[in-house]
Queue: 2 jobs
Job 1
Amino acid sequence: MNLDERNIYLHDVALSEALASWHAALDAAGALATLPAETIPLAAALGRVTAAPVWAKISSPHYHAAAMDGYAVRAEETRGASESRPLLLRVGHRAYPLDTGDPLPPDTNAVIKIEDTHLVQLADGDYIEIIAAMPPWRYVRPMGEDMVATELVLPANHRIRPQDLGAIAGCGHTSVSVYRRPRVAILPTGTELVQPGADLKPGDIIEYNSLVLGALAEEAGAVVTRLPIERDVRGAIKTTVERALAEHDLVVVNAGSSAGSEDYTASIVAELGTLCVHGIAIRPGHPVILGVAGGKAIAGIPGFPVSAAMTFDLIVRPLLYRWQGQLPPELPKLQAVLTRKVLSPMGEDEFLRVALGRVGDRIVATPLASGSGVIMSLVKADGIVTIPRFSEGHHAGEMVTVDLLRSPRTIENTIVSIGSHDMTLDVLADLLQRRHPTLRLSSSHVGSVSGLLALQRNEAHFAGSHLLDEETGEYNLGYVQRLLAAEGVHGVLLGFVNRTQGLIVPKGNPKQLAAVDDLLREDVVFVNRQRGAGTRVLLDYVLKQRGINPRQIQGYERTEYTHLAVAAAVKSGAADTGLGILAAARALDLDFVPLFDERYDLIIPREHYESPLLQPLLALIRDPGAGFAAAVTALGGYGVAHMGQVLGEF
């Protein structure tokens, strides 16, 4: 392959410079203006954008209409009526019965409500008796009260809402002129990609970026074509791109935007048209390609799912709105306190995903995993913190501005848990939201010690902990006394679960591991938990008791943050074993060697334990009829004898 066929970076440019360059090229090609107009029936117009103003063809109402059931009268003929001198008006001559919406008879200009009249039958006909005079146009909708013929009903560049449909129809139209929806083709590339549901083998990657990117485009009003996966063959990719350009306003090539041996997007764009940008100083997502070919827009989006979603949202979606005469929706913002220090590389705008919740009198923002391949960081994210490209990051406790991805009400109704990982918290979160749809439990897994420190800083409502005190052999209370009570934080130790810790091993336990001493074998590779995790504390306690030097264990320094991550390492073959819980082994169909029984408690400061926000959660934990205890038991390796009991106070 020739060097110029590879995707060699031009240079990283600032986001604003990249957008300016791309938009200038699109403008020169006539591809930046709003899309052509089309006329569609009103029934299909919801959410579309008007390409021209809508003027009223007729007035609404187009006649003087009764606003009440009653009698139409001439207001002048009701003068003098009072309780002491009731006035009689003959029905059919001076008073005309009508229903709401009926046209007023000629020469009438007011309506008397039926409940304000008394029907009197005399020899010469029926009369109504009234006891009050009526001003002109009382209880009448005059012609044009709503809209007057030739009045502006909707301007151009207006996104049509349900109420707008009624106004357009009410002023005499059956159709409306709107901008054509942008046509977007999304081309996933990569020999390693397979469709969702395919039988997987090592090296296969499920292709779901086209689902995510397509949904983002559809939310912005586009018509999306998700093209079949194209293997890493340059000629085939080029041919598919050419065909897609002929029928679409924008072609998005997903993956192939870096500088690897099978990354062809940049050279294809340059060959077909103009390569404007290759590399933007943003994180995640800097290997972005922007160009123009055949008078159409083309974008190369990174293959990592977080990079793909965030760069599409940041760079491509605004163009889709612009083509429809709109600005992108502006996300609501709020101020939050960052729970830990965040370092950011100089020279790149970084978009940090955070989880949010109100703890006490402030909103706390907990940074989520920053990896470009961690799609769950977007699923769990409540907001985005933008770190400017010439900033080195933020300190813990610093106030930051957050662009919200969820409603402020959701943030206010979020229960924040920071501490040790346990699968039962996910079960509890699901049950809470099913029983109380307005509430949400957000858990961050940082280890038991870090969870207690978060409580010390008032950054969470509770923390899960299973810290074994080496001096007393007791769980949690010693650590809580030292880290919380000594710092003025008081609360309760709520019994949650007892669980079995042991060695997670491959199916069949091929290396016949049976005890902690087996970790010293040269043929055994171990995967550990991070410092401060209760499982790590337990392991170190046992190693110290047995006089084992941790450095003798191959893999002791490699760490994961959850029991499931340890199980995944064993499942993948990256490790032979790791210390974890039975439920994690079962979840990934692995075997388990039980070694220790431990207590996992919820540590809850008093102010939160007594707060209205936590009461539904505590009720679910304590009520056997709620089904939580039964669901936990079904996971395996758990005991629930102390669930919901206050085991201690601090």
Job 2
Amino acid sequence: MTTDSTPLPGQEKYYLDQLFHAATGPGSDRMIDTGVFTRSQQKLQGDTILLLDEFPDHDGASCCFLRMATGVARTAAFQLQGEYQAEICNSGGWLLKPADPDMPSYWIPQAPVSRTQDANKRILTESSAAVTGFSASATELIVTISVPENALVDITLWRFSQESAGAVKELEQLLNLETQQIYLWNSQTDYSILADIYLYLIHGNVYTNRFIWPRMWKICSELDAYSLFVTMDGLELATGKLIYNLLKRQILFSVITRQDEDGGWYHGEWTDQMESHYRFHNGALLLLEAGMDEWPEAIVSESLERGAEFISRQRDETDIGTWFLHDSLEDSPELMDELCKQTGSRWIPNRIFGKSPTNKLILNTHLDTIVALKRYCDVTGDTRFDHLVQSARSATKAVLALRPAELLYRIVYRAIGLTLLPASKAERLSFLPRAIKRLTWMYLTPQVHRIKRTFPRFVMPGGLIERHLSMPHCDFNYPAVNVMDLARYWRCFPDEDLTEILDNAILAVTGTSIMEYWAEVKARNRQQFAVVVWVEAMYNICTLNNEPAYRNYLAEAILCAEDAKLGLPPSLLGADHEAVQKSQQLPCPSPADHRVRIVNLSRNGTMELLVINSTNGDIDLAWEKSPASSLSWYTADGRCISKPGEVDPACVTARSWLRGTGQSSPDT
């Protein structure tokens, strides 16, 4: 391989250190400029686009996104002057470390990736870009990659100068807590180490980390951005590492740069239209509301205000009050027809409660929007949406109170319950229940929507809570989502009388085998996400109610998730701004054994932990980073086995858990 500065024919050449200066040179575009984060854009050779993220209060750290444009097949050489050693990084990817400590270090979190995308930046295909050459000497390091014909190639690179050399140590030295699986709410995939951020954060936008049904493309997702932010927040609180703070900023401001002029975020999940999925939009609001706790910059507050104004307009005024919509396709029959055409689904227009024909009356997004707007009011003090929230609460109260056709629904849902059995139990059914089960899923379940339109009802006998009233399908994974969102809603409005509804909904899961049914892997059905959502629901319930029974439900759900090899929600780290105010959050300790999972329920000056062992053997209770205070320890059946000042329990027994509680110290 040639090592001079002259590119080979058909080759582009880049000097790594120069990239971090080129983005702010002549002709650059400063996209964001604040006291804590800047993003600049520059066009380089061959229409290559360079984004540079910098942190003015931490001048020694910066990150660039390099995107080589589509065109003819070619190679690109990346050259770094000086003597460097390439090492595999414990946080994922590779570190380029200089022999001269005065020179900068580099982190490449992911290998170069080749992509194709459409005009709306939805990712259509994705594959690794081939590394075709590598050489290192005492004077330079050169890596050459292949750029395929008619494809983009993306590269992400961090630079740490001597002033930020501590960040390199942070990447190399990890606690067990930093390497445990975190389940991201929208992608339904796991984050495990720092480099995984860049499976989602791609050329300055946060995407899903899977190709989304029905069009099988990757779309931008503010809900994943919010998940990542809560994860980074919890790990920053636990470790005190600067790198997590920088990543939080990068996620926050990446979401702001993607906001449309009308204040909305658009996704194009289901159709060729760039429709907005309002649950994702609300993810952006919740992220901005959390970000305001640390960075009340004008650009953050302005983005939040415009986003709140946008979502406040996405509503239907019904006879029972304001109903917040699920997506922008509900704006017209033509858009709903387009949805059905491109996904093979159906919609049946009706005017239940005087709603518009296209309003699908989806409960969970309605609740989510109420929560996002209530949080907006709490964070900003702006009360302009209070009348809408109050009207939406009236609509919520009305639909949750519906109890028509009790006997009919009781019979129907007894039969449906047979279809929600895990395979191990379904196989043991006698002939008659087996026949009823088969007839139910073949003939009854597909007709439930007709019953719901005739006798509108969300809360069913037995406790399950339906998702919608105006779509011709049933989704029995959503009872978990509805419990989670009702718990979040209840936190916002503690005067609501939801105890009976939630207790019955919880019993509908904990008193049956539906969680085992969710945990099963089925072809073309991603229902396992319901197990992790149930964990999130129980976390929210536990932070609202001190009853030990709810802790047991939470621990049992985590055992189920661990058995299914699923990650756990980021809120369990203890930094969910909805559940615990920033000023009241306490750091999550890190176990000495990576197989132990920790739930941080600490709040209101009280530290509370669940320590869970999902293995078939006992595990020593030991810490590589200890809890912030001395705790009393209780077994799963509520027995106190250790008090502050006494020796902690020796172990967590197989397939069990311990609960620790205690007051935090004043300087925690």
